[in-house]
Here is the input.
Amino acid sequence: MGDYRLVNTEAGDEYCASVIIVATGSRYRRLNVPGEDDLINASIHFCATCDGPFYKDREVVVVGGGNSGIEESLFLTKFVNKVTVLEFGDQLCASRVLQETAAKNPKIEIRLRHTVREFKGNGRLTSIVVEDLESGNVSELNPAAVFIFIGLDPNTAFLKDPIDIDKMGFIQTNPTFETSGSGVFATGDVRAGSTKEVASAVGEGATVALMVRQYLENSQSGRGSSGT
Ligand SMILES: Cc1cc2nc3c(=O)[nH]c(=O)nc-3n(C[C@H](O)[C@H](O)[C@H](O)COP(=O)(O)OP(=O)(O)OC[C@H]3O[C@@H](n4cnc5c(N)ncnc54)[C@H](O)[C@@H]3O)c2cc1C
Here is the structure.
């Protein structure tokens, strides 16, 4: 095969390969307020399915009133006694159906124009400092945990060649995980439409290896891309 792709690293090395798999993941957006870094995974979480069950019969705060924030809040009500949703804006941006479902759920309280200014605690969360952006009043809440759903950023800044991405920057793939760049595959959290959970990422990793093998077999036999 004479058809190679090049990868240049920050260290100045250059690699060439018949196939590249991009599996660079993504980053949950953070609030970037004092105390946050120390409590990530202790009392600050980014996945209700993963960590919600630990807070059975407790009170939690969800930051973010988009589709993820409201969907995850509804899910959390299966376990917790109360979910307080803090939304920066003056309205929720979740879908109307989600908003209506949340409004009917007695365990959910929504506070618009509110944001977190600080997390307090030492190993475990003791309180969060919340600002009412309307009045400027600052108060403290004492939830058992905080779930942050203010978006996810894909690790794609390094991509130089144009590869199709969606409006959020996640790499688009066909059903065989190949991107718009021939011989370039993407898998896991960086891929548009992936579920952003570890089990799926591992499964996709195994699947993409099989797809690459098929792609290489097709390339060697002169049939080009693996197709679907
Ligand atoms: C705090 C946190 C808690 C989570 N908890 C759970 C949980 O309980 N259950 C669950 O199912 N999922 C959880 N997840 C999600 C889960 O971790 C991901 O779905 C999974 O790790 C995605 O795998 P991935 O291989 O696609 O990406 P990642 O695991 O993110 O791996 C990407 C790797 O690529 C590296 N990288 C990034 N950019 C570059 C670059 N330019 N060059 C070279 N390397 C690069 C990164 O440093 C990283 O090592 C959690 C995620 C976070 C952030």
About this structure: The radius of gyration is 22 Å.
